[in-house]
Amino acid sequence: MPIITITRYVTVAVAVALAALILFLGHPGEPRWWALALPFAGWVIGPSVATYLLARRWGEPRWAAPLLLAALLASSLAAGITYYRAFVVSESSTAALALVFVPLWQWVALACLALAIIAGRGWARRRTRRDEPVARARSPHRRARSRR
């Protein structure tokens, strides 16, 4: 099974689990709740969807998609543990802040990883260009100037 397909399945599973968590914690019976919950759900679910979209876009080099899949799995596992501790184990009144700060750290980590992949792709392109033999002939205009 291709890496991108696995990434898609993991992304859907994470998105469904996070949507279920938001519905479980919220009050979906109130119509006003939906107006506030949908943008918030985008904030919480966004890092996993963005990771999939980056993996799909950056299929080359071959190491980018598996790296993004590993990042998706690691961040989802860490988020799951954090959400469990915040909403099941903890009885703190500030536990809901986990839904603000966990996605924030996921977005920051994803941005750092994306910058690293961009740098790695640029380095690979320069390395490829440097290794290719390039026959640089002088232009005829330079020859004409040098004869004068």
Please describe the structure with a list of short key phrases separated by commas or semicolons.
148 residues; mainly alpha; 5 helices; elongated
Kindly summarize this structure in a few lines.
This protein has 148 residues and is mainly alpha-helical. The protein has helices at residues 3-25, 31-57, 64-89, 98-131, 140-147.
Radius of gyration (CA) equals 24 Å
Q: Which residue ranges are poorly predicted, with pLDDT under 50 across at least 5 consecutive positions?
A: none
End-to-end separation in angstroms reads 66 Å
Mean pLDDT: 83
Q: Main β-sheet: number of strands, strand sense, barrel status?
A: none
Given helix and strand content, the structural type is mainly alpha
- Element order, helices and strands? HHHHH
Number of helices: 5
Total number of β-strand segments?
A: 0
State which percent range the strand residues make up. under 5%
Helix content: over 70%
Shape: elongated
Describe the 3D structure:
This protein is mainly α. It is built from five helices and no strands. The longest helix is centred in the last third of the chain and has 34 residues, at 98-131. The N and C termini lie far apart (66 Å). The model has no long low-confidence stretch (mean pLDDT 83).
